[in-house]
Queue: 2 jobs
Job 1
Amino acid sequence: MRFSTMLLPTLKETPADADVISQKLMVRAGMIRKVAAGIYDLLPLGVRVIRNVEKIIREEMNRSGAQEILMPTVLPAELWSESGRWEEYGAELLRLKDRHGRDFCLGPTHEEAVTDIVRRDVKSYKGLPLNLYQIQGKFRDEIRPRFGLMRGREFIMKDAYSFHATDESAEEEYVKMRDTYSRIFERCGLTFRAVEADAGNIGGNFSHEFMVMADTGEDAIAVCDTCKYAANLERAEIRPYEAKESGEDASTNEVDTVTTPGVKCIEEVSVFLDVSKETLIKTLIYNTDAGPVAALVRGDAELNELKLKRVLGAEFVELADDKTVEEITGAPVGFAGPVGLKIRIVADHAIRGMVDSVAGANEANTHLLNVNQGRDFEAEYGDLRNGAEGDGCPRCAGTLSVCRGIEVGHIFKLGTKYSVSMGANFLDENGKAQPMIMGCYGIGVGRVAAAAIEQNHDEAGIVWPAPLSPFDVEILPIKIADLEVRKAAFELYTELTEAGLDCLIDDRKERAGVKFKDADLIGIPLRVTLGDRNLKEGNVEFKDRGTGEVRLVAVADAAEEVLKSIRGAGQ
Amino acid sequence: MRFSTMLLPTLKETPADADVISQKLMVRAGMIRKVAAGIYDLLPLGVRVIRNVEKIIREEMNRSGAQEILMPTVLPAELWSESGRWEEYGAELLRLKDRHGRDFCLGPTHEEAVTDIVRRDVKSYKGLPLNLYQIQGKFRDEIRPRFGLMRGREFIMKDAYSFHATDESAEEEYVKMRDTYSRIFERCGLTFRAVEADAGNIGGNFSHEFMVMADTGEDAIAVCDTCKYAANLERAEIRPYEAKESGEDASTNEVDTVTTPGVKCIEEVSVFLDVSKETLIKTLIYNTDAGPVAALVRGDAELNELKLKRVLGAEFVELADDKTVEEITGAPVGFAGPVGLKIRIVADHAIRGMVDSVAGANEANTHLLNVNQGRDFEAEYGDLRNGAEGDGCPRCAGTLSVCRGIEVGHIFKLGTKYSVSMGANFLDENGKAQPMIMGCYGIGVGRVAAAAIEQNHDEAGIVWPAPLSPFDVEILPIKIADLEVRKAAFELYTELTEAGLDCLIDDRKERAGVKFKDADLIGIPLRVTLGDRNLKEGNVEFKDRGTGEVRLVAVADAAEEVLKSIRGAGQ
């Protein structure tokens, strides 16, 4: 492609309304343009990257035996009423009426539509398993669309849905998809982790998010330095401290009271008593569907309500209001403690290792010193706190570190939620009707491109992983007006194009500085620069966009060297 | 692909709500399923065909220098207000509101969106010409969607828009696109014609419809048997009869009146007077913006109002009501004739060749015999009637025949309609702002697939043109339970798949009859049948779906023979 004829409108200025790096660079590199909030045009450079992602996804999905279909964007309300989601789904579901006044929505996801296909055309276990996928524009009416393609309203998604006769089959497919997704993101040239996510009431490890690692990522992730364990920080399990032998470290100090007038929060208590937060017990009173509960974590930790729910087996947990706290503890908020409390007490594993702690006294303006579990109060123990850098891995002896990532894919065992509500049954080998067991598997196609940029850029612009790059190589003749330069550049361009490479040649009558800046911005991995001085000595310059490495190559060898560096030395 | 694991739900019964052959066969062959009126799922077999069409389109558009982009499906009302189409476009434009109450529509076409891109990012003649295309799902809320993918509400379209600094450039691109479209439909393996269509107020031959010829087509087309001329029948020009020398064939018979009580229409007059319709003059009174007009055509012809408009240079023409006819002719409807009429008379060229015609007498229950133009009335002559089988070609000495076709593409020089209303200007070489000149070029992707079936089918099912076929070859082992058969079939399948062919193997445990019926229905061009009897003699059977030709091939040569027949003898 010739730069001079391509719609490739690069910008010097960073757009004012862009929130994140990838959005800024995509706009500046002429990949996308905003049409309305969360709605974008993909310009030619953007389409090339998206097509690269789609091609990799399609090849790997097909290879794993999934079959491509295409469902409508505009879906009838009836299907969504059957699953109950017409009512349940919030305002993100864009509802509309056709000219006859019939209700439709723009598909944000296609569980109903695909279940409708399968219940209609698959009647027997012989037609199972089945994994159907599509690559399609979807619409979610986000209240605050932002971050460009990262959280748009209209976006391209690969969504796949599998149907099974048995749990084993569904779980086999789950593992197959986890491997398929790993191959997809590997082939995209991305550094990523498959991260354990909440599987809801399905049970087992059947929900994984695929995270592209990037410092700018929205999600904090705990990653083991030894094994493959990785989880969203707020869901990460933590290895409990080893339980201490009874009597070991046992304190002989008596509980003492201390007056702490108006000193309520952990921060204030720590300063007032001049003790570290690690010696404080934080006591939080919760209302739950299992009754009122006191939850204890060490003063330096954050309680994680998801974990509290799981430990209690509760459907909901909610911090108690001031009045309830006073009724339960007999003291104003800020002075709750475990000693003498009459309600159920659950404590984080870390509490078990504490000696001579400080806690609220359940009495206004008073704290207790030398509080010891077992002797002064009893509790149930569990994993209640947010993980942090340095925590122990729950799967091995390794240590967790915390890093950031961007969710680009999610795989999930759905179970029978949709097949039961929509009557997607099959006859088993005994002729008995059974609901199909389902799985679903999504990839945000535009998000993959955006995440690739978040992970691979520098101050000058994008640094594309080769598999996603809109072109294989950029040819940059410095003075296009110079006949020798032009001739050599177009000869190289023609030779490489005929060899099957996608080349961009910057044939614009622009200054070298402008061309170099644009090349860095657009970020094609390999740049071949042709200048009159180098050419006089029979050379062109190869530059690696990632490393910045520069080397001279004889012009006669240039095409072969480009092919070698792109296709590997073997070819 | 293995039939047993593919979602390929063929049906024995023809669906009750299918109107046309292609729709029936697509449903029966398991390519599509209806979700709502005019809204379909594409199942795996359907997706394969659509992807084949898209691939050919994409390759040829890219080859011609067009650049792929992707615009949103959901478009903001503001853009449509700028062009005036938010108000003008009828109920086919599906309008909707987002959660904030802002107006949007589902794009039925993208002139506004693409003009917005170009006006924003192209400022100078140096950025022109530009041809941008996309392949995308579109939505038109047709009042009566029908014919399956032929006239759906949601449908896949390739739409392209070009932008130019000069008329010459726009017209060059028009010709290039005409050639590109011809290459596309040729590569699809279709018999088609580029048919002249109405270019509105643009002038010149800058509107062509691409028609796939099929007896079941919606459109009647006049096609020359000698040159390339083809046009929609209602727009087809007709070579005028050669004008007769003055005095030649001149009649010496005097005009005579005949009483024709209650005999009004051509049919009745012809029977009543026992004369052929070719001797009658049909006189129609029109109200037009150029005043009242009498339009004459021969009794066997149909007046064409589009042509009448063109001959008159009128904006509107409308048949006069009974009262007006009586005022103008002095007689009730049914007895109008040219003799003695005081209003402007325009006549079809054929009238000039008539001698001793019969016409109304402008008097109740009376007709005139021996009416002759020139002597008894004067008229302006032009092309006023619908063409018919046997008419002369307007471009050469050939003869027109009438056949039927399905519109699959349309190319059109748009001019400055959108660039003027939306302010898409560029600076010319003198620094003067000018509106860009535009062209637009559409292909209905699903329609191409449907039209291919209308053109290529028999009683048993589809007969795919090879380039669109969902698979290159079907391998049909008759008794899959027979180890020898199964082994030979899968060996062939593996060898061909590894050679890069798309193979379908019918590995179902079904009776031979069921498999043969499904193979005919699905319509893959080449079928290789493996039966135990043939195999014992070392043979397999090749069958051409189109010709029905059958031949035995040695099993050892089967793979090579398949490759030869698909890729041509050269490979």
Job 2
Amino acid sequence: MARKTLNVGLVGCGFMGRTHSNAFRQVRTFFDPGYDLVLKAVCARSGDAARSFAETWGYESVETDWKALVARPDIDLIDIATPNSTHAEIAIAAAKAGKMVACEKPLGRSAAESAAMVEAVEAAGVPNMVWYNYRRVPAVMLAKQLVEEGRLGRIFHYRAKFLQDWTISADLPQGGAGLWRLDAAVAGSGVTGDLLAHCIDTAMWLNGGIREVSAMTETFIRERHHTVIGQVQPVTIDDASAFLARFDNGSLATFEATRYARGHKALYTLEINGEHGSIAWDLHDLHRLEIFDHRDPGITRGWRSIHVTDSDHPYMGRWWVPGLQIGYEHSFIHQMADFLEGLETGVTTIPSFREALRTDHVTDAVLRSARDRQWVKVAAGGA
Amino acid sequence: MARKTLNVGLVGCGFMGRTHSNAFRQVRTFFDPGYDLVLKAVCARSGDAARSFAETWGYESVETDWKALVARPDIDLIDIATPNSTHAEIAIAAAKAGKMVACEKPLGRSAAESAAMVEAVEAAGVPNMVWYNYRRVPAVMLAKQLVEEGRLGRIFHYRAKFLQDWTISADLPQGGAGLWRLDAAVAGSGVTGDLLAHCIDTAMWLNGGIREVSAMTETFIRERHHTVIGQVQPVTIDDASAFLARFDNGSLATFEATRYARGHKALYTLEINGEHGSIAWDLHDLHRLEIFDHRDPGITRGWRSIHVTDSDHPYMGRWWVPGLQIGYEHSFIHQMADFLEGLETGVTTIPSFREALRTDHVTDAVLRSARDRQWVKVAAGGA
Amino acid sequence: MARKTLNVGLVGCGFMGRTHSNAFRQVRTFFDPGYDLVLKAVCARSGDAARSFAETWGYESVETDWKALVARPDIDLIDIATPNSTHAEIAIAAAKAGKMVACEKPLGRSAAESAAMVEAVEAAGVPNMVWYNYRRVPAVMLAKQLVEEGRLGRIFHYRAKFLQDWTISADLPQGGAGLWRLDAAVAGSGVTGDLLAHCIDTAMWLNGGIREVSAMTETFIRERHHTVIGQVQPVTIDDASAFLARFDNGSLATFEATRYARGHKALYTLEINGEHGSIAWDLHDLHRLEIFDHRDPGITRGWRSIHVTDSDHPYMGRWWVPGLQIGYEHSFIHQMADFLEGLETGVTTIPSFREALRTDHVTDAVLRSARDRQWVKVAAGGA
Amino acid sequence: MARKTLNVGLVGCGFMGRTHSNAFRQVRTFFDPGYDLVLKAVCARSGDAARSFAETWGYESVETDWKALVARPDIDLIDIATPNSTHAEIAIAAAKAGKMVACEKPLGRSAAESAAMVEAVEAAGVPNMVWYNYRRVPAVMLAKQLVEEGRLGRIFHYRAKFLQDWTISADLPQGGAGLWRLDAAVAGSGVTGDLLAHCIDTAMWLNGGIREVSAMTETFIRERHHTVIGQVQPVTIDDASAFLARFDNGSLATFEATRYARGHKALYTLEINGEHGSIAWDLHDLHRLEIFDHRDPGITRGWRSIHVTDSDHPYMGRWWVPGLQIGYEHSFIHQMADFLEGLETGVTTIPSFREALRTDHVTDAVLRSARDRQWVKVAAGGA
């Protein structure tokens, strides 16, 4: 089969620049996409950082101004892996330049910002997607498949948590490289936009829209040294965020995220309870899906721990043999594979910008509910 | 040592009548209390039921009217194991008659009812306690010990759930023997008073007072056949109940209980996250305590699964040898042992009626918050 | 129903005297046996120990000479809970006196000793059983049920281990109360007779006879202070014992027991692998059975963790409600219930002395194989 | 830093060809080796297969005769990923041609074959290594580190199993692509060389030499259709293999491997018990290490589940952030990184051919012991 080429221009070379770049490199080897991805250029404000990254990952060229990158005629896809505060401007410009756009989550710092981004890509008619990568963990995709088949029956409960512990020390500064997530001006919010956004994205994909929320947030450490400003500053992000919710389908939910749960590194957990069965998953053992099927014979009913590594499990036919697990980064490879397949078939890869906007409507509602101490209805609409 | 005798009169011979009676029988063998418990009389409305129960458990006599039981001069302790709607009347009468009173949880159907009970036992000056048995699971008592020692440091988060699935079928009737828990008139509430009460009791014991709550409740099956009334009736209990809370110590909490979580039989789970460490426990594997200690050396840090069966673990020196576990009913035996020891030492066994009232203030607040859709402050006071 | 009485005379008041006595007391309350057990007498060499035990457990009288106990006309059942070296003499005398005999495992110190015991009870025609209690753990009984139903198909593998760590310290003495298990003259052997005997008993019950074995044993600490002799003596027991085996049905097995497995208190584990499914269990979480059923649909196949606490699980209808677990001592209560039921129905309760003798033939073969460093066929016969 | 190039020639493009090729591609990106690996050529008997593989993985050229590949002056490293029967001939030729040699495990089909290979690479003085990849799983490397530090004290027990279930169906043919592992002529042996070789390699690396073994093997399905020969043929491999062993340090071991353990896909487990602590690991959750440290305070002692994903855990600083796991294929990348570092520092990457030969001496002893039904001493020496 003759493959087309797709020239990628990456903005940002931090943690997410690495996960995306690895996906670009590995997708061709393990999947059979209709496109050869060419790592055309990487852009970072520091030329040295860009060059070093390009050398490591095999990018052909570097830029230090993302506008120059967007302007290049040899770029097909702009991939955004920068801090949240820059997502909107870059994405809108890229769309206007007719580029496909892939954007790290969350889309914008607020639903308003995100709505403008949706408008831009839809006006330009360019393919677009947001890197909510956890949907593409094989066990999570299997959960989706089982839910779609109606295995669980009427849904009663949804539960999700994302627990970390990396900001407990009061000595940790805020701001600057790797620490912009503690700076609300850059990040938009704290754990609500960073961690809960993942939980909400998966939840609505699996269980439909969220109707209303009642939330609380907390900032445990109120002041931290700011490495950019050079002095102690108030901390303006939410360190912890929890909310009650009702889904459109009538089910009840609890959501919680925090960076103050000692002993948990990146424990994203989810559970769905339905009339006929239940499903549970967690990121610390990401290749396993726990399911309970009430229709199993009574005396042998129990939670099954499925080691999602068989060739008939989602994506796993592309990897090794049963029993041999894959890791975190593979979820990005899978998303890229689906994106490329979507280009061929014309089916939009989910989540698109428009779908991701729904998550921002929920996080907005969560933050407002916590501030106003009342139940808040989630805004229905889109752009 | 000369032992005193303590004559027990039990009211109610259902599930809880059995757990209490077993505690009365086993405490003497495995602990070394200063009292010999004498199973003097059991009372049930049905004489046949009472006689059969007495024969099985070794009660010396039966009554069919609890007032007659309370009036008997040969009874020292009235133990209440009847449906919730009768707790207050019996307890108050027993206190007035100068009896010690032990009452199955929750104390009353509402804080108001409970407050009257507190007043009665305190006015009478009689020893009293409420059977919040889960405190006496060895692993939970070990958790208490670790918290008391300050091992966790400042507390950030508390999380508790009590998940069951036994009422999912719409064919299950309400009311009558074994099913009064679905009848709000008898039970007071649904899962809030039945299951969350346990979670709240343990939580405040481990982590201090709860300041305010935001709750939601749901009744998934709105009508059920009523076995007593003989026709389909609206269901007035809460099938599910979840709430956000803030503790007096500033920590955040999520609580949830439901009888619609397919695959979970009696999954009471709790977790506390503190600055230096975390603790987790669940009732389905009740002899294990999971702890995380951040002060362990970095490369070997991990959650430890403590098999709480050693002779230096709480209560376990009284049972078998390390590795051999005990079960659910032992928590009642332990509570009775502590009660008898308290009689000797003059230290009130916790939870007393007064302490248990605090839990009812929280459940009241939860139900009001769910009804009014707003944050509710927990009433501070007592009787 | 009119109940008959059964008068029990217990010999030995150590750890096993306690587990048996608790069974005698609890069986009447939780099961509905045709017999009332009367705790008639307990016998120990020390009158003080016997009296204290009798007071705690409710025995009506004490003896200090087991021969006197055996001679008493008011005793129906002699229960033997003494060190192994005394089993044979007591059991044979009891049988000759026409008493029913229950004996703590292992039966004798060797198959020869056991064979004489079998001969005695069979010649006397008295009911008899050996306390291989682990068969009566509900999860293990459920495993038996599934195997009997042919759920696993042809069996390929059996695996069992019993791992402890309580004798690792070189400072631990041998001999005397509680430590006779380290003295081969009293115990017969070390872990082979103490721990492997349990594994072998369950294995042959579940999977049929063992044909041949190849074993190794080791004594890690070669000398210990002997508390009775009062000086350092060679240790003559096996601290660890492992063997390969072939069952009559062609399946292969590995067995291992040790008291030098740091971190394991009483970790008895077993696993069976068959054509259609597998089963696994361990004593540290004894209420759970893990099963794998290959006939489950491919993408949702996984090991199921069955929380064996439902009313339709073996024995569990007698206890609490689903989700609430029981413990170690309950296995003895269940065995007593089955024994009493067997008296009514005339069906011998397993394991009888004759069945338990089979285990001694295997442990004999294991010890001989380890000594001679060669494969040894298991003696087929009985007494 | 100026990087040197290292030109790789791969023989074999099956499963192992893929894992090795992925390692060659990824090592440069995630580690910082002194060498750029160039995928110079891949060789397979089928030109089509070779071309397709080259296209997928980016090999510059193809060969259909490994002798032609070995003869090419532009190849620095010959990597052998063919069926076992061809390892020796290719490796010896490559060594004679002065190439570095990397060989998939096991080295040869027998210790004799392997010894000739050792002789060849040592005579030629070429760098060499065998792909016993599981040593490079971060959790296993952490185990090695803890053992080296003496954390466990004197070792009493070692236990390893490798359980699979993929050959249970009698309909599965033998021979041919992907099924040569069932053909003893090609594979050398069944699970002994395939699975136990991994267990033995790790065991001797962690716990020193194995002195003697007593083994049993079994072939459950005695005849299968042979896809190459085209008719039913006897099966000559061992389907299952288990053995007892004594290590040079006096510790005892049990080893077992099978392809008939229903429910286990690739369950490689290992456990070491020492005086002060124990360690356990399994391949199905490969990023976790379980450790027990007896020096922890008594009441909080328990098995710790270490999620080996921190930046100070072996290799993990090269990947993502704490909590995010890696998978199976990464163990090959790590081994290649170590090999390249070894080229720089002159330290031989383990296991070298010579070290891997020790494993073949053990597997030879295992097979002989099973055949002769007796204990067999492991041959001490090397080539």
